[in-house]
Please model this.
Amino acid sequence: MTLLSLPLALIVLTGFGVLLFKVSGRLSAGAVYEEQKREAYFCGEKAPASSSRPSGGKLHPEYRRFFATAFLFTIMEAGALLLGTIPKGHGPWLSLAFAGLMLLSLGVILVEVFQE
Model:
């Protein structure tokens, strides 16, 4: 019976999930489709749509600054994790190397973000 307990539990819980999905679908309010749901919208305002754009008025946001900031955050997080796991006895050189790497990456990111 112990070999069958995990597959049996999976089947029972999957069945319970499907049953819960069906019951909650019947209890929920019906969907109301309106024309405004398909329009572009961001930051609490209607997105500017211009048919003179090559995309036919579709919005194409600029993500370059976001990705630069996300990359900086990733470098900082990985560096902090590396710094936190350094064993004792290696001296301050690794900490100084980490600080130098952070300053270098910050400089690269700032140049990338504010470059027009």
